[in-house]
Design brief:
Layout: E1 4-9, E2 14-18, H1 23-32, E3 40-43, H2 49-60, E4 64-68, E5 73-77, H3 86-93, H4 103-110, E6 112-115, H5 129-137, E7 141-145, E8 148-152, E9 161-163, H6 169-179, E10 185-189, H7 195-207, E11 210-214, E12 218-222, E13 231-233, H8 238-251, E14 254-258, H9 266-275, E15 277-282, E16 285-290, E17 295-296, E18 299-301, H10 310-320, E19 323-330, H11 341-346, E20 350-354, E21 373-378, E22 386-388, H12 392-404, E23 407-412, H13 424-430, E24 434-437
Parallel strand pairs: 2-14, 3-13, 9-10, 17-19, 18-19, 22-23
Antiparallel strand pairs: 1-23, 1-24, 3-5, 4-5, 6-8, 7-8, 10-12, 11-12, 14-16, 15-16, 19-21, 20-21
Helix pairs in contact: 1-2, 1-7, 2-3, 4-6, 5-6, 6-7, 8-10, 8-12, 10-12
The structure holds uridine-diphosphate-2(N-acetylglucosaminyl) butyric acid.
Uridine-diphosphate-2(N-acetylglucosaminyl) butyric acid binds at residues 23-24, 27, 97, 121, 124-131, 166, 168-171, 192, 239, 310-311, 333-334, 392-393, 420.
Length: 438
């Protein structure tokens, strides 16, 4: 159903678009509203499917959600939080992994929580073992049943010492959302410190939480008895910003992204410059452009913050197909995030994937049969093709490839892109792209 996009590519994308709140912050901040005794207001909320999914999940749990889409303002009233049926949660959550983050807040509010089997993008196994271990450490009893997972808190959850084997974003958020109302102090070591997590900490602090971020990825949370609602303006989406920047590079264009902010983009901007892209940081955004001439090949490794984000990798790889020489990309966050390169090969790119850790240090996926390194040889002109979107970021990369390729491409499954890119078709048109929904 309108899940096709015909793309007439080969022309540079030029113009100005605006990004709003970060998908990977907004959804978590919405969950945080469950912890407050009074209503919360979240501003700068983009119209993306993940916001709809989380609104629906909150609604199922008795939260009164009002969303002014144009103004981007969400009002969340958790006065009547209640249990929801796992089948309804399952039906509503679709492929989202957000339900796992409802557990801590629901255990505090109701003493129990149910979650279905979890999805998310097809970019690896994406287990939830860290989450369940953390919840057990707080004192939750976890019961795996055929239709999902049932959790209960026989007594108030207790602060604890948690050490993450890997700085997982979700597991750090799980700890924060659970520890703030637990009894006593929680010390989390090996935490993720992504800007979206810092913004979540800011929200929780506004609600009354006591959280300190220490050196060496240690976060300390002092549990409190009561939290209030918050009013907050979401930080902007640095993944969407990088996606448009990569689109400018791959199509030889010039895109100003209003709302893009430099501090969260530093690592990306360094890489963008090394590839040969030009940028200018303005008061209200960042302009990205291809200055003409050859793009340069690079060696790149994805990592947790402050490293190069895994979500920036896929769009940038499309631009790397246009760089001269051999680029090496080592994906160290997900074991299986190069599936999208099949379509790029079909379009004429020369990309080989390897099981070895190429281009830097050994990572936890080495010697384990995961194709997690890629060598991109360029420049190769891309030709139009019929391609299927594999996941959110891979899907946007396919779009970029189709826009860079001469002729008409058919991109299937673009509904997945709506999960995280607000009004992307309008934005493409504003940048001069010739696209038509099928
Ligand atoms: N992991 C485990 N066990 C767990 C949880 C994670 O082994 O219980 C592993 C994962 O399999 C992965 C690594 O730890 O290899 C990192 O996963 P993390 O928990 O950090 O990822 P996430 O919280 O599930 C969020 C974003 C992703 C983004 C990653 C990394 C949301 C909703 N999702 O996922 O965003 O790639 O952090 O920054 O915030 C996207 O936006 O397209 C997207 C996939």
């Amino acid at each position: 159903m309108n899940d096709l996009l015909y793309v007439n590519g080969g022309n540079p994308l030029n113009g100005t678009i605006t990004v709003r709140g970060a998908k990977n912050f907004v959804s978590k901040s919405m969950v945080a509203s469950l912890l407050g005794e009074t209503p919360s207001v979240l501003r700068n909320v983009p119209q993306i499917r993940d916001v709809k999914v989380v609104s629906g999940l909150l609604d199922l749990h008795g939260v009164n959600v009002k969303y002014d889409t144009d103004a981007g303002i969400l009002d969340l009233d958790p006065s009547n939080v209640e249990s929801a049926h796992v089948a309804d949660i399952d039906a509503h959550a679709g492929s989202s992994r957000i339900p796992i983050l409802f557990c801590g807040p629901l255990l505090h509010r109701l003493g129990e929580a149910f979650i279905p089997d979890l999805g998310g993008c097809r970019i690896g196994d994406r287990p939830i073992n860290y989450h369940l271990d953390i919840l057990r450490q707080f004192g939750a009893v976890v019961d795996k049943r055929p239709n999902g997972i049932h959790l209960r808190a026989p007594r108030r959850l207790q602060g604890t010492k948690i050490s993450l084997p890997y700085p997982s974003v979700g597991a750090t958020e799980q700890t924060l959302l659970t520890a703030v109302r637990a009894d006593g102090i929680t010390e989390l070591s090996g935490a993720a410190i992504e800007p979206e997590i810092m913004d979540l900490i800011a929200v929780l602090q506004k609600m009354g939480a006591i959280i300190s971020v220490d050196t060496d990825r240690v976060i300390r949370i002092e549990g409190v008895d009561r939290l209030e609602g918050y009013t907050h303006t979401a930080l902007n989406d640095r993944i969407e910003t990088a996606s448009w920047a990569s689109a400018a590079l791959a199509t030889g264009g010039d895109i100003t992204v209003k709302g893009a902010t430099q501090p969260e983009m530093m690592t990306f901007l360094n890489t963008f410059r090394k590839v040969g892209g030009r940028f200018e940081v303005q008061d209200d955004g960042i302009r990205f452009w291809h200055a003409g001439g050859d793009l340069k090949s690079i060696v790149l490794e994805t990592d947790v913050h402050p490293g190069f984000m895994t979500d920036w990798q896929q769009p940038l790889v499309v631009a790397l197909t246009q760089a001269t020489g051999l680029s090496i990309v080592h994906e160290t966050v997900y074991e299986n995030r190069f599936g999208f390169t099949d379509a790029l090969r079909k379009m004429g790119a020369t990309i080989q994937v390897y099981k070895e850790c190429l281009g830097g240090r050994d990572c936890r996926f080495g010697q384990r049969n995961f194709h997690h390194s890629a060598v991109v040889s360029g420049p190769t002109p891309l030709s139009a093709a019929d391609i299927e979107v594999p996941d959110l970021r891979g899907g946007f990369s396919h779009l970029i490839a189709a826009l860079a390729a001469k002729g008409q491409s058919t991109v299937r499954g673009i509904g997945l892109i709506d999960r995280g890119y607000e009004n992307f078709q309008d934005k493409l048109e504003a940048l001069g792209a010739e696209v038509v929904r099928g």
